Amino acid sequence: MKKKLSSFERQLMLDEILFYSICGEEDRRKILDQQLMTFQDFRRLSLITDYLELDHLHKFIWDLHSHKFMDEMDKLYQKCKDEKDDLPEMVLETGQWLDDFWKQAPNTTVSYLLREIFSDGLKSKKKKSNITSYPSSNTGKSML
Questions:
Q1: Residue 3 located in a structural domain
Q2: 48 within some domain
Q3: Which tens digits make up the pLDDT trace of 67-82?
Q4: Domain assignment of residue 14, given as a range
Q5: Using CB atoms within 10 A as the burial measure, which of 10, 12, 79, 116 is most buried?
């Protein structure tokens, strides 16, 4: 008889179904430890899963990979503490990660929906969002 899934396992599977259906193959392989994950990948995938509120997948990524990057996390924390001037650049970098993610979506509908989700959270009072316009499927020109 098969063991019944825990609530966490069930929700993790649902998070994985959702995320793996919209992410690239390379990201899926990195999360599952089938391909080398860099600290940059870890930060990017942590941000995206957190931003999409895929809490169980986010925890899974941290549980599986965070121990590999403890030194880098300490250095980054110290850098943020000591060199506050770098923070705006780091925020722009996270915007670029979100921008790249919606652009690699499996179809234009998913791409559009992700762009809408991401652009809503990155709006700033001083600047327009760093998320680029939605590309049309034929010309590569912006639809917005």
A1: no
A2: yes
A3: 999 999 999 888 888 8
A4: 10-82
A5: 12
d(CA 66, CA 78): 17
Q: Which residue reads 């780091």 in tokens?
A: 90
Q: Quote the CA–CA distance of 101 and 46 in Å, as a whole number.
A: 13
Q: 14 with 75, same domain?
A: yes
- Same domain flag for 53 and 90: no
CA distances from residue 15 to 20, 22, 51, 91 in whole angstroms, order as listed: 8, 11, 13, 25
| Tokens 């316009």, located at residue | 133
Identify whether 5 is part of a domain: no
Give yes or no for a contact between 106 and 21, defined as CB atoms under 8 angstroms apart: yes
Q: Is the pTM of this model over 0.85?
A: no
138 and 110 in a single domain? The answer is yes
Both 16 and 71 in one domain: the answer is yes
Token readout for 16 is 């994985």
Segment 7-56, tens digit of pLDDT: 999 999 999 999 999 999 999 999 999 999 999 999 999 999 999 999 99
Q: 55-65 and 39-51 are packed helices; what angle lies between their axes, rounded to 10 degrees?
A: 160
Q: Which residues pair with 135 in a beta bridge?
A: 142
